[in-house]
C-alpha cells in the first residue's frame, strides 16, 4: 500500500504542488480550513453576485507559469482583463497607460483553483493544528481532535504565521518561517443599483487609505445586475485598523472612495467587508520553497517568492520538485 502525501492548503501554491506530485504518480490528500479552495484567490458569493475580494488579477512573467496560464485559458478558466486604468495621486485622477497583460479567473477568480483541484481527494472545513511524526510516518491533528494519516511526506502551503505553528517537529524550518512577517489588507465591496458615471475600471491609489479599487463587473464573465466595486485598503491603514468593526471599515473606505471619484456616489445598495489577515509578505524573499527532506517536510506559498499569484504557483512547483528529487 502506498502512503499518500499530505498537502495543507488549497490555494494556488498547495494545488500547484499537488498537481505536480500527482502527475509524477504519487497519491496525495489535501486539507483546507475553508469550505472551498482558493485561499486569497477565492471569490465570495453575495447578493450582488460573485465578488473577487482577494487577488484582483495576476500577470505571467515566468515562461513556466505563462504556459500554465495558456492552458487555463484554453480550458476557459481564465480570460484577459483589459480595464481602463487610472492613477490617483495628489488629489487627481489620470489615465494609467501600460502594456501589462492582466489575467483573471472566469467567470470568477475561484474558477482557477476549482479547475486545478479537479477530483483530487480533499477534506474541507478542516483546520490542521498539529503535524507530528510517528515511528515512520506523519500524522495530522485537526481542531476537532481528529487524527489524519499516515502520510509519507507533508507539504504545508499556508501563510507563514499559520505555517510556523505546524513546524514544531522541525525547529530549523520553524525559525526561518517565524521570521516572515505578513501584512493585513481590508477589502470592501460596494454595490450600486445604477452604474456610477465614470469610465474608470481600475485605479492605483496613492495618498489615501485605499491603495487599489476595481469595477468588478468590468472583468470578463461577471454577470452582476449591480455596479460592484472592490476597494483594498493599504497595508498601513489595515494594520492600524486591523480590529475595527466591519461597519466602520466600510464607512471609512466608502468615504475615501467618494473623495477620490470625480462623480456622485449614492448610498450603496449592498456592502461587504473582508479582512485578509495575511494578505501579503512584508519585504521580498526569493527562497522558492523551504524543506527538510530528511524529515519529509516542505513549505511553500506566495510569501516564498514575490507575494504574487505567479510566485505562489512557482513555489508549489519548487516544493514538489524538491520532494520528488529526494524520493529518487
Question: Keywords for this structure?
Answer:
7-stranded mixed beta sheet, elongated, 2 domains, FAD, 328 residues, single chain, 30% strand, 6-stranded mixed beta sheet, 20 strands, Polyamine Oxidase, Chain A, domain 2, 26% helix, alpha/beta, FAD/NAD(P)-binding domain
Task: Describe the protein.
The chain has 328 residues and is of the alpha/beta class. It has 2 domains: 5-45 and 113-179 and 285-327, 3-Layer(bba) Sandwich (FAD/NAD(P)-binding domain); 50-109 and 181-281, Alpha-Beta Complex (Polyamine Oxidase, Chain A, domain 2). Helices cover 26% and strands 30% of the residues. The chain has helices at residues 12-23, 63-74, 111-117, 160-164, 171-178, 235-240, 246-260, 309-327, and strands spanning 5-8, 28-31, 44-46, 49-51, 78-81, 85-89, 92-95, 102-105, 122-123, 128-133, 138-142, 147-151, 154-156, 182-192, 202-205, 210-215, 227-233, 270-281, 290-292, 297-299. Strands 7-6-15-16-17-14-18 form a 7-stranded mixed β-sheet. Strands 9-2-1-13-20-19 form a 6-stranded mixed β-sheet, covered by helices on one side. A 3-stranded antiparallel β-sheet has the order 10-11-12, with no helix packed on it. Strand 3 (44-46) and strand 4 (49-51) form a beta hairpin. It is elongated, with a radius of gyration of 20 Å. The relative contact order is 0.20. The mean pLDDT is 94. This is Renalase. It catalyses: 1,2-dihydro-beta-NAD + O2 + H(+) = H2O2 + NAD(+); 1,6-dihydro-beta-NAD + O2 + H(+) = H2O2 + NAD(+); 1,6-dihydro-beta-NADP + O2 + H(+) = H2O2 + NADP(+); 1,2-dihydro-beta-NADP + O2 + H(+) = H2O2 + NADP(+). Belongs to the bacterial renalase family.
Amino acid at each position: 500500500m502506498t502512503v499518500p502525501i499530505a498537502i495543507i492548503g488549497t490555494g494556488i501554491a498547495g494545488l500547484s504542488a499537488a498537481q505536480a506530485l500527482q502527475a509524477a504518480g504519487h497519491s496525495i490528500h489535501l486539507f483546507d480550513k475553508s469550505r472551498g479552495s482558493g485561499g486569497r484567490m477565492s471569490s465570495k458569493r453575495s447578493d450582488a453576485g460573485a465578488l473577487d475580494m482577494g487577488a484582483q488579477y495576476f500577470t505571467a512573467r515566468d515562461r513556466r507559469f505563462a504556459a500554465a496560464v495558456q492552458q487555463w485559458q484554453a480550458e476557459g478558466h481564465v480570460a484577459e482583463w483589459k480595464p481602463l486604468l487610472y492613477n490617483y495621486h495628489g488629489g487627481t485622477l489620470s489615465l494609467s497607460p501600460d502594456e501589462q497583460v492582466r489575467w483573471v479567473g472566469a467567470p470568477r477568480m475561484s474558477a482557477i483553483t476549482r479547475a486545478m483541484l479537479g477530483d483530487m481527494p480533499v477534506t474541507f472545513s478542516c483546520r490542521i493544528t498539529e503535524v507530528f511524526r510517528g515511528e515512520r510516518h506523519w500524522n495530522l491533528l485537526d481542531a476537532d481532535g481528529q487524527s489524519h494519516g499516515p502520510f509519507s511526506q507533508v507539504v504545508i502551503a499556508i501563510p507563514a504565521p499559520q505555517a510556523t505553528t505546524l513546524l514544531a517537529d522541525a525547529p530549523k524550518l520553524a525559525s526561518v518561517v517565524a521570521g516572515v512577517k505578513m501584512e493585513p489588507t481590508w477589502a470592501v465591496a460596494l454595490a450600486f443599483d445604477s452604474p456610477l458615471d465614470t469610465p474608470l475600471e481600475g485605479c492605483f491609489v496613492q495618498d489615501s487609505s485605499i491603495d487599489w479599487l476595481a469595477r468588478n463587473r468590468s472583468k470578463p464573465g461577471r454577470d452582476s445586475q449591480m455596479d460592484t466595486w472592490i476597494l483594498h485598503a493599504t497595508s498601513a491603514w489595515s494594520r492600524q485598523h486591523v480590529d475595527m468593526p466591519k461597519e466602520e471599515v466600510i464607512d471609512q473606505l466608502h468615504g475615501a472612495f467618494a473623495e477620490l471619484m470625480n462623480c456622485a456616489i449614492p448610498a450603496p445598495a449592498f456592502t461587504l467587508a473582508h479582512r485578509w489577515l495575511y494578505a501579503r509578505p512584508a519585504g521580498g524573499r526569493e527562497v522558492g520553497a523551504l524543506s527538510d527532506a530528511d524529515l519529509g517536510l516542505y513549505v511553500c506559498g506566495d510569501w516564498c517568492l514575490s507575494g504574487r499569484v505567479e510566485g505562489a504557483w512557482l513555489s508549489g512547483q519548487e516544493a514538489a520538485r524538491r520532494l520528488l528529487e529526494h524520493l529518487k
